[in-house]
Amino acid sequence: MTKVMTSPGKYVQGKKVIEEMGDYIKDLGTKALIIADPIVEELFFDQLEVGLKDLDYEIEYFNGECSKVEIKRLEKKAVEKGAEMVIGMGGGKTLDTAKAAAHYADLPVVIVPTIAATDAPCSALSVIYTEEGVFEEYLFLPRNPDVVMIDTKIVAQAPVRFLVSGMGDALATYFEAAASALTKTTAMSGGAPTMTAQNLAELCYNTLLKYGESAKKAAEAGVVTEALEKIVEANTLLSGLGFESGGLAAAHAIHNGFTVLEETHAKTHGEKVAYSTLVQMVMEDRDPVEIEMVRNFCRRIGLPTTLADLGITEISEEKIIQVAEASCAEDETIHNMPFAVDAEMVKDAILAVDAL
Prior knowledge:
Layout: E1 11-14, H1 21-25, E2 31-36, H2 39-51, E3 56-61, H3 68-80, E4 85-90, H4 92-105, E5 109-113, E6 125-129, E7 135-140, E8 147-151, H5 152-157, H6 160-183, H7 195-221, H8 226-246, H9 250-258, H10 269-283, H11 288-301, H12 317-327, H13 343-355
Parallel strand pairs: 1-8, 2-3, 2-4, 4-5, 5-8
Antiparallel strand pairs: 6-7
């Protein structure tokens, strides 16, 4: 069976690297459209000016949802402006939108996360939502970003919740890759999971357990430490490579299911994924000691372990079966699990995790 490993062209991480951005992207062109969260110019404009002093650029603000309408709008802007590259700056949905707009405009893309909240930056994937924020589909892109650059000083100054959310997203990587390895399902890289991806996924998990709490404390103090650097790399690079070339399974499918409930929309991607990882572990009948260890880790760093933590304060079987049915949609990654899965099984596991 053919195995495939995929990755961004270049990954750059460190304190104040945004001020060196031009050195890493100069081969891509001289004119850029920057797609950014509105807060980027307010908080990071001085550093951005230094990093892009030799580049002609314009900033276009992201409207808040990675929808087909927004992607089309920004693709059109890139073409109209004569951009030679697209630079995405901000959170996960901004970056996914930048990747998709660059793809349709046939331009290279530079990804600059301002938070370490998801493993989206490194992947050749955009998660598409409706304009109301409900998961719609995955957009598989033909190549990974040309450059991914993450400034750990910016990450350390961001709200701590985002770093913790990234740990929730990264937490699923090992468990989903392990399930995919058993079924040898084709990963998003286009081939069976590689040994490299599986080991990176395990390293990601071990890094979270070892350095997660220390990194959170550093972020609370707004400082960059080696623990913070390690967790940023785990959240962004290790998890990104691990999920894309190792495979997805139940946890992300259940996350997508939770998006059908409006009360979960205030929760981040990683917060929903963390709870969904516990659901996958229950479905797999993993050792209760292991489940307790992961649950306690989530509690210590502030990730959801109950439905109330996800905003679902009025629990009904009708609501949870809606989540379960959406999780089990025909093309969902839950079917990469090494056993048959149905909505009833998912519903029971969701409620079981809450009961724990």
